[in-house]
Amino acid sequence: MTKVSIIIPLHNAVAFIEEAITSCLNQSFSNIEVIVVENGSKDDSWNMVKRIQDLRLKCFQISNANAAAARNFGFKEADGDYIMFLDADDVLAPNKIELQLASLAHKPKDWLASCSWAKFTHDIKEAKIEPQSVWTEEDSLVWCIKSFMGHGMMSLGCWLIPKTVIEKAGIWDERLSLHDDGEFMCRALLASKAQVFVEDTCVYYRQVEGSLSRNNQSLQAAKSALAVCQSYDKQLLQRQDNDQVRRALAYNYCRLLYEFYPKHKSVLKEARQHLKKLKVKSSPPIGGKLFKQLTSILGFYYALRLKSIFYNSSL
Predict the structure, then answer these.
(1) Each residue of 146-176: b (16+ CB within 10 Å) or e?
(2) What is the pLDDT of residues 240-262, one digit of tens each?
(3) What is the mean pLDDT of the chain?
(4) What is the pLDDT of residue 213?
(5) Which is it for strands 194-206 and 91-92: parallel, antiparallel or unpaired?
(6) pTM for the full predicted model
(7) Other CB atoms closer than 10 Å to residue 233's CB: what's the count?
(8) Which of 197, 112, 183, 191 lies closest to 148, judged by CA?
C-alpha cells in the first residue's frame, strides 16, 4: 500500500507544533509517518513533541539549526513512496493526502500534486482561500515561469512529491538561508513530469510575526537570495532558452535588488551583472503601484535610488 512521509523541521515552535502534528495524524488517509526533526530549539518544543503518543510519529534531534538540514535528515529517514515537507506552524485539511493520492492515481509516474492554501494567524476558521493563476498550471517549466513573474506561489506543505522525483532532483541546499524552499521546489518541479492541482482541500499557512522570510535583511540572506537566482538561471536555461524564460529570470534579480537596495553593495553589483547578461530589454514591473509608476518614468535603477531615500515609505 502507498505510504506518505511527512517531514517537519522543528525550531522554537512550541506554540504551534502540536496542532501541526495533529492535523497530520488525523488525515483520512492513515498510512503515513510523521518525521519531526528538532534542530536547536531554545523553547519546550522537543518535550511537547515527545508527549504525543502515536506509533506513526518519529522524532529526531540534530544540532544543526538549519531547516534545510532538518528536512534532509528527515528525508534520509523516510520510507514513504511520497514525501511532504510541512512547516511546524502550518495545518493540513483532513482530506489533503487522500484527495491528492486519488488525483495522482490517474496520472503517469513522477507527477507532483499540489492544492489550495490560505493564510491565517490564530485560527484556521479565519482563513480565506484566494486562488492564484499559477495554481492550475500543469507544465512544470511554465509553472516556474508564471510564479517568477508574479502570478502566484504555492505554500511548501501543499506539495506531495514522489520520492523518486526528489532522488532525481537532489536534496535541499543546506548553504541557503533564504528562499531555499523556492530553490528546492524549482528543481523538484523540473525533475517531475508535471503537476496536478487538487482544488477541494487546503493547507493553512500561518502568518507569524517576525518571520525570517519577511524580515531578514542580513548579508547572509542577500547572498542566499543571489545564489537562488543563479540556481534558477541554471535550471531553467538548461531546459529552455528563450525571451520568456529570460524575462522570468530577470524578475528574480529585480526582486532581489528591490528587497535589499541599498545594502550589501557587492551582492547587488553581482546581481546587476547577472541581470545584464540576461539581455532583457526592459525591467519587469516589481514593487508597489507607485514604484512601478516611477520605474516606467525614470527607469528601474533611478526608482531604486528614490526608494532608498524614502526607505520606509510605501514605494
Answers:
(1) bbbbbebbbbbbbbbbbbebbeebebbbeeb
(2) 999 999 999 999 999 999 999 99
(3) 94
(4) 53
(5) antiparallel
(6) 0.94
(7) 18
(8) 183
Q: What b/e string do you get for 59-92 counting C-beta neighbours within 10 Å, with b at 16 or more?
A: beebeeebbbbbbbbbbeebebebbbbbbbbbbb
Which has more pLDDT, 227 or 211? 227
Q: What is the DSSP string of 234-265?
A: HHHHHH--SHHHHHHHHHHHHHHHHHHTTS-H
Closest by CA position to 73, among listed 172, 141, 152, 195: 172
- Domains of the chain in start order, with CATH, are 4-212 (3.90.550.10), 217-287 (no CATH)
| pLDDT at res. 214 | 53
For the sheet with 161-162, list strands across it.
Answer: 57-62, 32-39, 4-10, 82-85, 161-162
> Residue written as cell 525570517?
212
Q: Which residues sit opposite 85 in a β-bridge? A: 7
